Structure formats: C-alpha cells, structure tokens
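Batch manifest, entry 17 of 40.
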Amino acid sequence: YYLHAKAGYAVFRDIYAGTEVALLGDDTSSQWRLGAHLTGLKLGAVQMSVAGGYLKDQNGKAGTYATVDMRGAF
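Output type: structure tokens
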C-alpha cells in the first residue's frame, strides 16, 4: 500500500509550500513519513516537487527522508 497526501499554501504564483504525510508498506514492512514539501517548481516543460522530513518504520527505526518528483508535459 501507498498513501500520500499534501496540503499547503500558494507562496508564489503556482508554487506551493506545506506539509505532507505518507504511509507505505507491504506484507513484511510498513513505514510512515511526516515532512514538508515545495511543489510547482517549473523548468521548461518539467514540473518538480521536493520534500523532506522524518520517517519511522515498523521496527522502530527512525531517520530522515528526501524526495524529488519530476513530471514532464508533452
């Protein structure tokens, strides 16, 4: 399973900043994440999102995470 939700405010035109939460796992593992995102950054036809925050898994291990999401328009 993978559940990911973001909420935020427009900080400049189509650029949004806010919080995100994610729950992910399968039959043998699970993890939750809580962090912040910046979404709507554009480089030509490519739209990007960057995020980072805190994570914890089913074994009690914790740490940080970072993601970069890129989408292209055609």
